[in-house]
Design goal:
Layout (H helix, E strand, L loop, with lengths): L7 H7 L1 E11 L38 H13 L3 E2 L6 E4 L9 E4 L6 E10 L2 E14 L3 E5 L11 E5 L6 E7 L9 H19 L11 E10 L9 E6 L2 H20 L7 E6 L4 E7 L9 E2 L10 H9 L5 H12 L3 H9 L3 H9 L4 H9 L1 H9 L10 H12 L5 H12 L5 H8 L7 H14 L1 H8 L6 H11 L6 H11 L5
Parallel strand pairs: 11-12
Antiparallel strand pairs: 1-9, 1-10, 2-5, 3-4, 3-14, 5-6, 6-9, 7-8, 10-11, 12-13
Helix pairs in contact: 3-4, 8-9, 8-11, 9-10, 9-11, 11-12, 14-16, 14-17, 16-17
């Protein structure tokens, strides 16, 4: 049965959303959290495992110092307090993707607490409180086959790959975020975007959502204005920035529909479907007591040396917000223009394109124009649209050299996105280079004048603007490959008129 959802504008006038985000980051360490198995992405299933990460009897974990250091650096970048003493705990549950049937995590004594991250929304700063940043181990990967949905329901068998089990995983949990109103989905996306940029700047993870090294769980609830916060749902493993925004919006619409009909929201996990933009029920949401946490008996507590922490803080790189401010000044952009770059997820792409030789204006033109349009049409992140910064810089160079005009450059860009090669290769293969040779253009100009005598007479009479029609005729004859400036000069020369 199809449920008619209320309009979004109506929902935000009648309800107040409260959101929260739990983000998991796989650290880029060389080995796993508690053993020496490699952490490289990919590989044959179950080939990067050992007795420790398989939880075999008698095996003992040893904490990865590099992972602890990376977690502290994340906490410091998020303005957290670093615990002087903390410990690991066992989080018990029976999942097929955890070979030990428990996860080594942190519970009541995390490594980093009480921080914040500022994000920019339409020129305003929104401060997102950070509840905790703690360190744990990742689970394995379950693949359900034989069904239509890829989920366990309807599948004929399930396969488990433990290569990922035991990889260092940092969980970053925000405090509840009320008061965002209609902007709640935008705030959620902006937070994850900014968090990804911060973590990337630290060099502790590649934060590639498409490979699962950055995953986000989105909590959403609705309440009447001034009333107690509503029951939240948790949409699990949202795997793109665009989907974070869509998941919040989808849950707001769904929950409003349930509440409008007199129903109650169930505290549960939900699955987000990329194809429909909707969420479906997963399982009832466990509480902390359901996991039966207790201190991990095989690991000693952590007591980071204050001098070590101070040294890590002193070595933090320039954070993204400050870096963007410098770039804005260097590129000569207004606040509004820079916000457009940020909203498109194009800061790093434009910076790399400029580093490859393009001007700031040229780089912005392609990433915020044609490439952003294609990304929106195909529903992918801008970085995954199919063009690299180096290719965009090469395309702009061909335009600057007069070998391509904007129309031809767009055609070349189509080939780049389709994977046909570099801009220069595509231009040569398709014969798209601008024709600027005077001799080659003369015949086309004479033909245009002969075919449009009335227009030619207007130009001779002093109406120079009318020459545009003759230039257009030549451009049509040459399939857009003529140099329009050279054509105009030839037209005026032939008609004896000064430009």
């Amino acid at each position: 049965m199809t449920t008619t959802l209320p309009a979004y504008d109506e929902v935000v006038t009648r309800y107040e959303p409260v959101i929260g985000l739990e983000t998991h980051v796989e650290l880029g360490t060389r080995t796993k959290m508690f053993c020496g198995c490699p952490t490289d992405f990919g590989g044959e299933p179950n080939t990067r495992v050992c007795p420790v990460c398989l939880g075999l009897p008698g095996s003992l974990p040893v904490a990865n110092k590099a992972a602890i250091e990376a977690t502290i650096r994340i906490g410091l970048a998020l303005n957290c307090s670093i615990a002087q003493w903390c410990r690991f705990a066992r989080k018990n549950y029976f999942y097929p993707d955890m070979p030990k049937n428990f996860q080594i995590s942190q519970y009541d004594e995390p490594l980093c607490v009480d921080g914040y991250l500022d994000v920019e929304i339409d020129g305003e700063t929104v401060r997102i409180g950070i509840e905790r940043v703690h360190l744990e181990e990742d689970t394995g990967k379950t693949l359900h086959v034989g069904g239509a949905t890829g989920r366990i329901h309807g599948a004929t068998e399930s396969l488990v790959d433990y290569n990922r089990a035991g990889i260092p995983l940092v969980e970053i949990v925000t405090k509840p975020i009320p008061g965002t109103g209609a902007l709640a989905p935008v705030v959620a996306r902006a937070y994850v975007t900014e968090l990804r940029d911060v973590i990337r700047s630290l060099g502790v993870s590649d934060v590639r959502m498409e490979e699962g090294s950055l995953r986000c769980d989105v909590n959403t609830s609705l309440n009447l204005p001034g009333a107690q916060w509503g029951t939240r749902t948790e949409t699990k493993n949202v795997n793109s920035l665009r989907s974070v925004e869509r998941a919040v919006r989808s849950e707001m619409l769904r929950q409003a529909s349930v509440l409008d009909g007199g129903g109650r929201i169930t505290q549960e996990t939900r699955h987000f479907h990329e194809d429909t933009g909707e969420t479906t029920s997963g399982r009832s949401k466990e509480t902390a007591t359901d996991y039966r946490y207790f201190p991990e008996p095989d690991l000693v507590p952590l007591a980071p040396d204050p001098d070590w922490v101070a040294g890590l803080k002193a070595e933090l790189p320039e954070l993204p917000r400050l870096h963007r401010r410098r770039l804005q000044d260097r590129w000569g952009l207004s606040d509004l223009d820079m916000q457009s770059v940020v909203n498109a997820g194009a800061v790093e792409l434009i910076e790399q394109t400029i580093a490859a030789g393009a001007s700031p204006a040229g780089a912005r033109k392609w990433w915020l124009g044609e490439l952003s349009r294609r990304a929106n049409e195909t529903g992918v992140e801008l970085a995954a649209v199919g063009a690299t910064p180096g290719q965009v810089a090469e395309l702009q160079r061909l335009v600057d050299e007069g070998k391509l005009n904007d129309k031809l450059a767009r055609t070349v860009l189509e080939g780049v996105v389709a994977g046909e090669g570099s801009p220069a290769e595509i231009m040569a293969r398709r014969g798209l280079e601008v024709v600027s040779d005077t001799g080659a253009l003369s015949a086309a100009v004479d033909e245009a004048i002969a075919a449009n005598p009335d227009v030619a007479d207007k130009v001779r009479a002093g109406k120079v603007a009318a020459a545009g029609a003759l230039v257009g005729a030549v451009m049509k004859t040459t399939r857009g490959q003529a140099d329009a400036r050279a054509v105009r000069e030839l037209v005026l020369e032939r008609l004896g008129v000064q430009g």
